[in-house]
Amino acid sequence: MSEIHAHNVLNLLREKPMTEAELRQTVINEFGSEAQFRTCKLSGFNFEQLFAFFIERQKIIQQGELWAVNQERVCNH
Hints:
Elements: E1 4-5, H1 6-15, H2 20-31, E2 37-38, E3 43-45, H3 47-56, E4 60-63, E5 66-69
Parallel strand pairs: 1-2
Antiparallel strand pairs: 2-3, 4-5
């Protein structure tokens, strides 16, 4: 199974900010429950690891209950 680029997950949040639970369910619906993800430099993430990576790198920010893309911290390619 090929890994899905993390930008695909960020694009979901660009379209619509979501709670973590909503994002998790959307990712499962879009990519499957066993999906693996990669970034520009790293690979082998499951959803929980990718979500933690996004928070640690400030790629997503919390706005109340919702998470949204922090455009200033996302590369553009």
